[in-house]
Specification:
Oligomer: single chain
Distance between the termini: 25 Å
Shape: elongated
Largest sheet: 11 strands, mixed
Number of helices: 15
Helix content: 40-55%
Strand content: 5-15%
Number of strands: 13
Length: 432
């Protein structure tokens, strides 16, 4: 029965190929949407876990979240060091971790921060040590893998947050790799982590030990963060441009603060308190990411409906092809019956044609969906930064394949049912 079904499909190879292609396009679209939506949602959830609030310069709250948590946008600006001290004094704040952004190495962002930042993502060492000071750096797993960097290796940071920005290199302050992290499946895999003071030094921003000492004093309430420091990136007219004091000197600042609450009261009081200050804004990751995923979700739902309509169209094409084929070979099918083939066997042969066509389309579609995601993640830096993987299979793909196979079966049922209504004598007489 299987060999006969293959023979019939080869007999109309062009029609079969077109039907397979139509189904493959539908399945590839569905698989791509499934992988994209689930991985984006999971990645956003993992990266924002443990961060209740992001504090930064006035601007777009979504931009602040994207730049500070997911590292896929430009910062909204800089904020003064007093903001760190203010939040660390607040009894409702358990942790306030500063971020210093503005440089990259081969497209991987260099983040000046504290050891508490690594704790947020549960980062563990694969090699070396964690504490990076005085132009030392700890590399995320993806950075080490893609750059081939080793312990003790020196590299120069470039001005700007992306490799395509073409910023000048900070040749006076080379970084030394002192640690490499294990993979975490979070944003930190694609980051280079150093101290905030090292970022200040790379940009020629004067600072002294009083900044760190002040931070230690502000932690008298038991907060977890380690340094009261920040960063002022040196972008020309960019969103992270450093502020200047009255004498024109660069001032130490922070790009953003990642805040975790000590109690529920903080969630009620702190965002409003911060947003009332003209130089600061507070963005809640849960709200902004939900809004972003809602926008994504609407577009994905529309594309998913279109893909299923395309799959249904493929099923209709299979139905038409099998119906026409069944009519054209009624004599052959009647002859099979006379030679001893049962109605059930002939019926099964026609249904199997539909199933084989659908299976071929489903298989090609699954492979095509993963290939498209791989190409997209390599072609678009933002998708690459989000860590989308084409080598992860989702259980929902089995449901998609099952749905397409069902479409193939349903499309073949009516043509196959003609077997039970065929008058053998009349059909053979007409064939002769």
């Amino acid at each position: 029965m299987l060999g006969l079904a293959f023979a019939y499909l080869r007999d109309r190879a062009l029609t079969t190929a077109l039907n397979v292609l139509l189904l493959a396009i539908a399945v590839a679209t569905l698989v791509l949407l499934l992988l994209f939506s689930t991985q984006i949602s999971q990645r956003f959830e993992r990266d924002a876990q443990g961060i209740d609030l992001v504090v930064g310069a006035k601007g777009s709250p979504l931009q602040l979240i994207l730049s500070s948590i997911y590292q896929i946008d430009n910062p909204t600006g800089n904020i003064p060091l007093e903001s760190v001290a203010m939040l660390r004094r607040d009894p409702s704040v358990a942790r306030a971790v500063p971020l210093a952004l503005g440089d990259n190495f081969r497209g991987f962002r260099i983040v000046g921060t504290e050891a508490a930042y690594l704790d947020i993502y549960g980062a563990k060492l694969a090699q070396g040590r964690l504490n990076a000071v005085d132009a030392e750096a700890v590399l995320g797993a993806a950075v080490a893998r893609e750059t081939g960097a080793k312990l003790g290796q020196k590299f120069l940071g470039s001005h700007g947050l992306g490799e395509d920005e073409g910023g000048s290199e900070h040749e006076h302050i080379p970084f030394t790799t002192v640690g490499i992290l294990k993979p975490t499946g979070t944003v930190i895999d694609r980051l280079i982590v150093t101290s905030v003071e090292s970022v200040w030094d790379a940009h020629g921003i004067a600072h002294d030990d009083e900044h760190a000492k002040g931070g230690e004093q502000e932690r008298g309430h038991g907060h977890e963060a380690e340094h009261d420091t920040g960063h002022a990136a040196e972008h020309d007219r960019g969103p992270a441009t450093s502020m200047s004091d009255a004498q024109g000197e660069m001032k130490p600042e922070v790009t953003a603060l990642l805040v975790s609450y000590r109690n529920a009261y903080g969630a009620i009081r702190i965002p409003g308190m911060i947003n009332r200050q003209t130089e600061l804004q507070a963005a809640v990751p849960a709200i902004e990411t939900a809004r972003l995923l809602t926008l994504f979700g609407s577009a994905i739902d529309g594309a998913r409906i279109f893909a299923w309509l395309l799959a249904a169209t493929g099923g209709l094409a299979i139905f038409v092809a099998l119906l026409n084929a069944a009519r054209a070979r009624e004599g052959d099918l009647a002859l099979l019956r006379v030679m001893g083939a049962s109605r059930t066997r002939v019926f099964g042969t026609i249904v199997l044609e539909g199933v084989l066509t659908a299976a071929a389309g489903a298989l090609l579609g699954v492979l095509g969906g993963h290939l498209l995601l791989w190409l997209a993640s390599r072609g678009f830096q933002t998708l690459s930064d989000l860590g989308l993987s084409a080598f992860v299979f989702h259980p929902g793909e089995a449901a998609i394949v099952g749905g397409v196979l069902l479409i193939g079966v349903l499309a073949a049922l009516i043509p196959a049912a003609r077997v039970f209504r065929t008058d053998l004598a009349q059909t053979l007489a007409q064939a002769s």
